[in-house]
Amino acid sequence: MKHLLATEGLDPDLATAVLDTADGLKRTLLGREVRKLPTLRGRTVITMFYENSTRTRVSFEIAGKWMSADVVNVSAGGSSVGKGESLRDTALTLSAAGADCVIVRHPASGAAQRLAGWLEGTGTSVVNAGDGMHEHPTQALLDAATLRERLGGIKDRRIGIVGDVLHSRVARSNIHLLSALGAEVVLVAPPTLLPAGVGALPVTVSHDLDAELPALDAVMMLRVQAERMHGGFFPSAREYSIAYGLNEARLRLLPEHAVVLHPGPMLRGMEIASAVADAPSAAITEQVRNGVHVRMAVLYHLLAGEEDAK
């Protein structure tokens, strides 16, 4: 694996291998007082974030450090981007400085793909940590890892993705990955928050959350991305919550084994009730925990896997 840019078109066997590696790394680190492996010693990983992030940025940094890589953080506000430097020149500068892997988050869809093209032949790998409304592949992989852990597998499971699908790169990546791994994906949202061409995706579409909940093995609540909205997509936050918020009454409609996910940050009281977010069926903190191991696995497959295979 040279880059990780999207889950669309990602080989299911490769995705499963990454998830298996994450499981192995998690077991290896379990109970260790010092959570440190020498796997990526001598490698340099650079995170380049043009949008705010807590979970993704921190977990990539921890993942790199737990594998003994040198991790450097670059933010747009503190770099030459503030002086007008282009994304291309910034990427080439980081590669020339010795980056083995650049992890990029950018507000423009397709930015990670462009970056990989500019760095072709340099030996630098690119990981998409979220590009506009396009994809967020490592989030989908950590969601899949959490579902495997909680449900014992993904194949033939029915997974609901609820809320602001239109603006969600997390939803897009999960649709492609979970479908490829054999799950049935159900999108539940108001018509205004579904993307054009949704009928071409490998999903079932519904506008009635209460009707879908009893048949779901997992429900993934999405953040309402107000910062990407221009115009009225729903009447009010209260009406959205009434129709599409996961409250305690709706939690009781789910099967007993069902899992509740959320990529964060959560808008408690609107998308999800606090009592639901903190319930035993919620795996939200587990998603964050698994995110570190999944991102370790991604870095392993990008930077160490081929060498170890020789």
UniProtKB/TrEMBL annotation:
Residues 2-149 form the Aspartate/ornithine carbamoyltransferase carbamoyl-P binding domain. Pathway: Pyrimidine metabolism; UMP biosynthesis via de novo pathway; (S)-dihydroorotate from bicarbonate: step 2/3. It holds the Pfam family OTCace_N. Its EC number is 2.1.3.2. One of its GO terms (biological process) is amino acid metabolic process. Heterododecamer (2C3:3R2) of six catalytic PyrB chains organized as two trimers (C3), and six regulatory PyrI chains organized as three dimers (R2). This is Aspartate carbamoyltransferase. The gene is pyrB.
